[in-house]
Amino acid sequence: MLRNYFRIAWRIISRNRLYTLISVASLALGICGCIVIWLVAHYELSFDKFHPDANRIYRLGNARNGIKSSYIIPPMPDVIRRTVPGVEAVTTFFPFRGSPPVTVPAVGKKPATQFSTRVADQDPLGDYIIADEGWFRVFNYQWLVGEPVAMRLPFTVVLTEGKARQYFGPLPVESYVGRELIFEDSLRLRVAGIVKDWKANTDLPATEFISFATIDASFLKDKRHMDDWAWHGGGPSWIWPQCFIKLAKGVDTGGVSARLQAIGRQVVGSTPKRPFQVMLEPLADIHFNSDYSDDSTRKAHLPTLYMLMGIAVFILILGTVNFVNLSTAQSIQRAKEIGVRKVLGSGRSSIMGQFLTETAVITLLAVAVAALLVSPVMAYFREYIPAGVHFRLLEPSTLLFLLAITAITTLLAGFYPGRVLAGYLPILSLKGGAAQGGKEKWLLRKSLIVFQFTISLVFIIVSLLMGNQIRYMLETDYGFKANAIVTVQDSYGMYDTTTTIKVLEQEFKRLPGIAEVTREAKAPIDWGISVTSVERKGKKDITTGVSLYYGNEEYIPFYGMRIVAGRNITRSDTLTEWVINETATRALGFNRPADAVGQLLYNNDKAIPIVGVVADFYLESLKYPILPIVIGHVPGFEHSLGIKLASAGKSPEDVKKTLAAMEKVYKDVYPHRPFEYAFLDETIANLYETEQKTAALVRVVMILAIFISCMGLFGLALFTARRKSAEISIRKVLGATTADIATLLNRGFIGLVLLSLLIASPIAWWLTHRWLQDFAYRTPIAWWVFPLAGAGAILIALVTVSFQSIRAAMANPIKNLRTE
């Protein structure tokens, strides 16, 4: 019987090639989208799921003045070990955004070899971390040689097997122990252990673990004060450690969290003026939680991931709707076939089995086409797809997903049409009537068309409104100049000196293509180097959190910041004065910017005068409100440079030559470091990378939804024109013009599109309104977008339907009436 099902199914499919093509194409596009989105979702949701105790592992975070950070006060982990019950293991480590070069010393006749361990785009954490032995007690590693106690000794390093082979070649793992590595030409370390590489996806991809004891025994102690309870957050991220804890089985996080808060109150100090909170961040949240300032991990955007999953479902439903529409429309032509089958003894289950088989064959064809499309689609959208996502057809998980999507699609697309066909009464079917419930089926087809165009219009409207917000963000005046400015940010400041950066600054100033250079900790369009609290004392003390920016006396004029009161900072060897922004003046209770000039602000009991006020500027994307800001001159933290290119009259080739000259100078000063730079205007654009990718994705889905909807509309228009061929011919004989007949056929479809617009408009408004709530500064929702989208959808529908309508209206009526 099954063989007979497939034979008949192939005959039906071959006889209706155009309808089959439309159905296969619609389903293939939907299934292809599902496969790609499933691959992305499967990849993003797999991070750090392989740890056997993942549900008991937490990263410590803190919040001060509303700003969350994943960095902790250095002595806190030791206090947790000693005083917090229910904690099974604690580890402290220092993450690195950029890792210094590593040299393998010469052995025998084999010369010394140098490796660059920085893989910035793929590995934000860096190849190595400085960690204690607790790292290997919190996280599960298979030790090939050595044990965690090796981390107690200074000048030791533990490597993963893959990293050891990279450095020393394919040798027995025992031979790696005792070998020497030199970091940054001065830090000599001995390999004390080898662990197995993690093969699964992780946000903790370190492959080299320097012992924590090395800090106190080397120059590293100058930058890391492990007994410093005076939390001020100053300095780059590598100055402050991170901490993971593993709770004992059955321990309630509430009790541990309460104890952590008590520690914060007792030894850090937490008051209404300077609130300090310690938080437990589950390991599973690290990959998605962007609330914490964290330079160590790549963050996936969970709402976007959920949106992708929803889009996958909608795209598949759109393709399924086309199949259902065309199948129910064709059911009239199969009425006699069903009548004969029933007279000969076929039951409802047999007829439904036949139709589900036909649907399964079409679905399998669509899955095959979709599988062929996945690789080209992923290559085209590579910019939007994480680097670790790959399509491997023969992987068990991929085959299982394809099997599931085939089964689900077959049931979704085939159940209702099969039920309709199986419900025909044989007597009516053989008389040519068949279609009891024809009105209901036509109503269903109308409803499905409305559904398709509602989805399409939602994406059209949302895409236009998102485009308005993104244009507004990119064209906004940020309060400083960004054109032709290149920033050379500090990734290696732990090894840098103020003297060296000054040498680089002077060398850059001598280059002919450079107009100005300023020394800084960070550019304006970035969170300050830290967040701290300042206090204004008076009749009523006022404390507020501020974002710290460090730069020399050229920093403010270099970026074109407008001073609204007072003056700029002056040259000094230490922090002696501050310039604040307008938001800080309001937060500190000053009525006018001028009132703040000359007043003292206290930070860690040190009084520093305010010498000027600058106009507000954005320090992040427009998603965040402008924060109180203080700018000071602290040479010890100014390890980065802002370079203004002499762009007037310069061609792109001139800019490339200037950048090449800058790289040569940089290599002369820092021979072992890669030259890394960024254009400030591109940095601003990159702030909205997630929003731009989301908008681009919505546009792609909009085009896909319109295309699938139009394919279904085209198929229904073709079927309607064929079914009404006799009526059209009679109208022509009676004097109807081509325009009259085309209008008759188009009118019903246009009405459906208008109904879709009425349904889609409030949905699109609500979705856009929710999306805009993430932005502190946003454009209003423009009313004109809705009629524009409706007009566009009507035009698309007219173009789709009119081809068949005009063709039917222009047909020779004699040919259609000859058989009547």
Explained architecture:
The protein is an alpha+beta fold. It is built from 24 helices and 25 strands. The strands form three sheets. Strands 1, 2, 3, 4, 5, 6, 7, 8, 9, 10, 11, 12, 13 and 14 form a 14-stranded mixed β-sheet that branches. Strands 17, 18, 19, 20, 21, 22 and 23 form a seven-stranded mixed β-sheet that branches.
In short:
By secondary structure, the protein is an alpha+beta fold. The protein is built from 24 helices and 25 strands.
Q: How would you characterize the largest beta sheet?
A: 14 strands, mixed
Q: What percent strand?
A: 15-25%
Q: Rounded to an integer, what's the Rg over CA atoms?
A: 34 Å
- DSSP helical segment count: 24
Give structural attributes.
alpha+beta; single chain; 820 residues
